[in-house]
Amino acid sequence: MAVYTEVPDEMLRAFVTEYDIGKVVSFKGIAEGVENSNYLLQTEHANFILTLYEKRVDPEDLPYFLGLMDHLAASDIPCPTPIHGRDSKALRTVAGRPAAIISFLQGVARSRPSPRDCAQLGKHLAHFHLAGMSYGTKRDNSLSVSGWRPLFNDSVPRANTIQSKLKEIISKELDYLEAHWPQGLPEGVIHADLFPDNVFFLGDDLSGLIDFYFACNDFLAYDLAICLNAWCFEPDGAFNITKARMLLSAYGNIRPLNRDELAALPVLARGAAMRFLLTRVYDWLHQVEGALVKPKNPMEFLGRLRFHQAVTGPGAYGLD
Amino acid sequence: MAVYTEVPDEMLRAFVTEYDIGKVVSFKGIAEGVENSNYLLQTEHANFILTLYEKRVDPEDLPYFLGLMDHLAASDIPCPTPIHGRDSKALRTVAGRPAAIISFLQGVARSRPSPRDCAQLGKHLAHFHLAGMSYGTKRDNSLSVSGWRPLFNDSVPRANTIQSKLKEIISKELDYLEAHWPQGLPEGVIHADLFPDNVFFLGDDLSGLIDFYFACNDFLAYDLAICLNAWCFEPDGAFNITKARMLLSAYGNIRPLNRDELAALPVLARGAAMRFLLTRVYDWLHQVEGALVKPKNPMEFLGRLRFHQAVTGPGAYGLD
Questions:
Q1: Where does a domain end: B85, B104, B123?
Q2: Is residue B3 part of a domain?
């Protein structure tokens, strides 16, 4: 649910003349992405998305994100492509916000991904990781292990208002993760937020990966660990090992995991569960009254964390 | 801003097979209409709007609204047309809500309508009123003069928390309106909520009238009085007599107002200002915490009411 900044029609018309995309025939705020304002923009020629970047996105990161989308699209990864204006720029300003027009991808997100969908995801994620290898720009992952304790410290005083002992559980897990976080795994560009609502399907096939605004450089296997958390648990909290196997094996067919990556999967999965647990706890405790976006329940990720804590090796994820 | 009910993709696919509109290629919640959940639905063949009717719409009224859109579209009024399923029905249920797929209209709403836009509105409103004459079904206007006092009574105890003496001002005006409300004016189907956000333009021309979910049978001139309030005041509260003249004369060229209608315009305009003042006061005092829709400031319509109270005849609206 995300339209925060309104774009009056005359401002839109003036903005669109900076591009060679024809005249506007329709313009509607859409409920996609929770961080930015998104509009479906239809012109005489095609459909586009106009994104206005809101305060949670650092404007300094935008060239990284837009450049990445350019790079990936040139490598045939199914992702939105920034549209460049007549002055060749993709990033400009509208209604006082940094803004970009990106191409429109067909497809619909899955509410309940199937094991087959997980295999599609694995294949495309591996291709995405390989394509990202040649992207020259870097961006640190502010939401990796070194970023978790500061985030936690902002929530400590009130964490136990969500669930008793939550503070102690998180604190102990952070100690563990800081002591056991792997080193030297293969790195590259990761999506870092590849939940089912950021993946479109058309019929049986994956048709698009969207929302690259958490992308950064980190361990590639950490991206896979995020997907394990985001795609392989059922609504009742149960882990679906078939989905995990399909995800990991389809990924491994394109980019095989090395022995260190396999061994690190459980701790990476714990870390990924921690990352979403922490941001959800933070958002829960920092709710803005009347905000458009209702925070998601953080406790979902405590359950996932507990699952990964009990895992003793990659076999638990369906790997032989 | 309006997506209240989520439609999972598998539910959507099943729903769409009841129509002959091809397969779904895209589906996005859109921020249009404040009463219902609206989705932009793209299929292989065309674009559509899927509307799920939420609690503010009485399901018993839906056949009136959908039948009206069918009737108007058949009369070449630029408005959405309900899509009928393979069983010929337009109204069915999805995700536990009454729902309909309607055709998609191109165009963009004007943020700041020009006098020329007001003339376009007048012309199309007159054609709409004439086309509505042959619509066989009727629906009373629950938000006309007899409905205002009950609405006010629900807000009385707290009205003065918005502005001092608001209770007294409204109460006195209601007395006046109840005593002077006209009788015997030409009646027919009115839109009853034709604000600029419900009117699309493509280039210089009006391309669509949308959101018929307040439509009802009432004095045709009252619809025009609503448009005077909705289109002819500037953001600073000033009345723009040029816009009013363009609206009324373009309307009159298609359906001339009779003497009684002309004489009643000031009181109808007072009534229209009262209707929106009252619902906005009500919404302001009944805000739901965390609701997606922030209520609009009611005081805007108190200013408009005061303008109309000072009017002594139709000449104030630019008529000779």
A1: B104
A2: no
Q: How confident is the model at residue A18 (pLDDT cuts 50, 70, 90)?
A: very high
pLDDT at A88 over 90: yes
Question: In CATH, what number is assigned to the domain containing residue B206?
Answer: 3.90.1200.10
How many structural domains comprise chain B?
Answer: 2
Q: Are residues A81 and A188 in the same domain?
A: no
CA–CA gap between residue A259 and residue A316 (Å, rounded): 16
CA torsion through residues A106, A112, A117, A121, sign: positive
The arithmetic mean of pLDDT across residues A180-195, rounded, is 98
* CA angle in degrees (0–180, nearest 5) for A257-A260-A261: 40
Residue the block writes with tokens 């300094």: A60
- Please check whether residues B254 and B114 belong to one and the same domain: yes
Is residue B4 within 8 angstroms of chain A, CB to CB?
Answer: no
Q: Do B9 and A108 touch (CB under 8 A)?
A: yes
The closest CB to that of B27, out of A8, A11, A108, belongs to A108
Give the global pTM: 0.91
* Cβ within 8 Å of A, B 213-272: none
Q: Predicted confidence band at B68 (pLDDT cuts at 50, 70, 90)?
A: very high
* A182 alpha-carbon distance from chain centroid: 22
A109 touching chain B per CB within 8 A: yes
Q: What is the pLDDT of residue A1?
A: 40
Residue carrying the six token digits 């067909």: A106
Complex-level ipTM: 0.89
Asked if B29's CB is within 8 angstroms of A28's CB, the reply is no
Task: Please indicate, yes or no, whether residues B57 and B200 belong to a single structural domain of this protein.
Answer: no
Domain encompassing residue A275: 109-317
Option in A24, A32, A289 nearest B28 (CB):
A32
Residue B199: predicted pLDDT: 98
Could you tell me if A81 and A175 lie in one domain? no
Looking at the complex, does the CB of residue B109 fall below 8 Å from at least one CB of chain A?
A: yes
Section A25-40 average pLDDT? 87
